[in-house]
C-alpha cells in the first residue's frame, strides 16, 4: 500500500514590512559578504536587475578584487557595475543579502554608510543576529537566492531568463547540485520554476563546475595532496598556505569550495579546510556530513554559518591555527554518536 506523506511545507511568506521598506525607498545600496560566493552574487545580481522595474535606483557595493575568477562569470552575465562612493552616500536604504554578521559585510570604501542608512537584512544563516532595522532571516531556506526569488515575486517583479539564471546558480551551488540536506521541497519547487522561467542550467553548471583555469586546477591538486584523515576516520582536513596559493597565480578569492575535497571521503563526519589568504589570517571552512552540525564547532572560534556549513577566521600562522583547532575538532568528532555506515 502506498502511503501519502502529505503536501510539502509551504515556504514562509515575505514579511510585509520588508516589501514596504523597499517600496518606500528610492535609492537602494545592495551589499553582501566579503569573498562573495555564487549565492551572494546571484542575490545581488537579481535584485540589481529587478528593482528598476519598480522605479528604484539600485547601487551595487562590490569592491574590486573580491570576486573569484570563476565567479566573475556571474558578474559579467548580469552586467553588474559597482557604484561610486558618492552614489552610495546618496542612498536612503541598504539591502544586505546573504551576510551572517554585520562585520562580514563587503564594505571596503563604504563603511560610513552603515552608521546612518537603515538596513534591510535578508539572509538564511542560522547565526544572523538580525542587525538590520528590518530583518527576514529564514535558516531553513536553502539559500538567499531562494528568498530573493520569493521577494521579487511578492514585489511583482518579472523573473526574466537572466534573473532566473542567476538565482538558479545561487540555489544550485548552495545545495551542491541539490544533493545536501538543505534541498527541501520549496527549494526543488523554486528550481523547477526558475527552469520554466528560462534559467540557462547547462551553462551555469559548466561555468561553475567545469571551467577551472590551469592555476585553479593546480591549486586543487595541492588541496588533495595536503589532505589528512584522523585515526578514527571521522575527521578530514586540508591546508593551503599563502605561498601555495600565489605560486599557482591564484588569490584568496579563488579558494573556498575546495573544502569539498576532504568532505568527499567516505565515512568522515567533519571536514575542515584551512587557508592562509593573507599574512597572519587563516580562514576555516567547516563542513558536516552524516547529519553532523559543525555550527557549534565554528562558534567556538568566533565563527558562524549553517549547521552543515560554517566558517571562521583566526589570527596566526597556518601552523599555529591548525595546531590549535585540530585537537578540538578531533575531540568533537570522537564524542559524536553516529550511525554505522552500511
Description of the molecule:
- The protein is an alpha/beta fold and 342 residues long.
- It has 2 domains: 16-208, Alpha-Beta Complex (inorganic pyrophosphatase (n-terminal core)); 214-334, Roll (Diaminopimelate Epimerase, Chain A, domain 1), CATH 3.10.310.
- It has helices at residues 16-24, 38-50, 72-78, 85-89, 144-155, 161-174, 185-196, 201-209, 214-225, 242-246, 260-263, 295-299, 318-334; strands at residues 27-31, 57-60, 93-97, 119-123, 134-137, 228-229, 235-240, 270-278, 281-288, 304-305, 309-315.
- The strands form 2 sheets. Strands 6-7-8-9-11-10 form a 6-stranded mixed β-sheet, sandwiched between helices. A 5-stranded parallel β-sheet has the order 2-1-3-4-5, covered by helices on one side.
- β8 (270-278) and β9 form a beta hairpin.
- α2 (38-50) packs antiparallel against α6 (161-174).
- It is globular and about 60 Å long.
- Residues 1-8 have low confidence and may be disordered.
Amino acid at each position: 500500500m502506498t502511503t501519502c506523506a502529505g503536501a510539502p511545507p509551504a515556504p514562509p511568506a515575505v514579511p510585509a514590512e520588508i516589501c514596504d521598506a523597499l517600496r518606500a525607498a528610492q535609492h537602494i545600496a545592495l551589499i553582501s559578504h566579503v569573498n562573495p560566493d555564487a549565492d551572494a552574487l546571484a542575490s545581488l545580481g537579481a535584485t540589481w536587475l529587478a528593482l528598476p522595474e519598480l522605479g528604484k535606483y539600485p547601487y551595487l557595493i562590490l569592491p574590486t578584487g573580491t570576486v573569484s575568477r570563476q565567479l566573475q562569470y556571474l558578474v559579467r552575465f548580469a552586467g553588474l557595475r559597482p557604484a561610486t562612493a558618492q552614489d552610495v552616500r546618496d542612498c536612503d536604504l541598504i539591502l544586505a543579502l546573504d551576510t551572517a554578521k554585520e562585520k562580514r559585510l563587503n564594505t571596503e570604501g563604504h563603511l560610513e554608510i552603515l552608521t546612518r542608512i537603515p538596513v534591510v537584512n535578508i539572509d538564511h544563516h542560522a547565526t544572523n543576529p538580525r542587525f538590520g532595522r528590518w530583518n527576514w532571516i529564514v535558516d531553513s531556506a536553502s539559500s538567499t537566492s531562494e528568498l530573493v526569488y520569493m521577494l521579487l515575486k511578492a514585489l511583482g517583479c518579472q523573473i526574466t531568463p537572466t534573473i532566473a539564471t542567476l538565482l538558479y546558480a545561487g540555489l544550485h551551488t548552495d545545495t551542491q547540485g541539490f544533493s545536501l540536506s538543505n534541498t527541501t521541497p520549496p527549494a526543488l519547487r523554486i528550481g523547477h520554476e526558475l527552469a520554466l522561467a528560462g534559467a540557462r542550467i547547462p551553462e551555469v553548471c559548466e561555468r561553475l563546475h567545469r571551467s577551472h583555469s590551469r592555476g585553479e586546477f593546480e591549486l586543487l591538486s595541492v588541496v588533495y595532496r595536503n589532505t589528512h584523515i584522523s585515526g578514527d576516520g571521522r575527521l578530514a582536513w586540508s591546508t593551503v598556505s599563502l605561498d601555495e596559493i600565489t605560486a599557482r597565480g591564484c588569490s584568496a578569492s579563488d579558494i573556498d569550495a575546495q573544502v569539498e575535497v576532504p568532505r568527499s571521503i567516505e565515512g568522515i563526519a567533519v571536514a575542515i579546510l584551512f587557508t592562509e589568504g593573507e599574512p597572519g589570517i587563516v580562514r576555516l571552512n567547516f563542513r558536516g556530513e552524516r547529519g553532523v552540525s559543525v555550527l557549534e564547532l565554528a562558534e567556538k572560534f568566533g565563527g558562524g554559518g549553517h549547521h552543515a556549513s560554517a566558517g571562521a577566521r583566526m589570527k596566526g600562522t597556518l601552523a599555529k591555527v591548525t595546531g590549535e583547532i585540530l585537537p578540538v575538532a578531533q575531540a568533537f568528532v570522537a564524542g559524536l554518536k553516529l550511525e554505522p555506515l552500511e
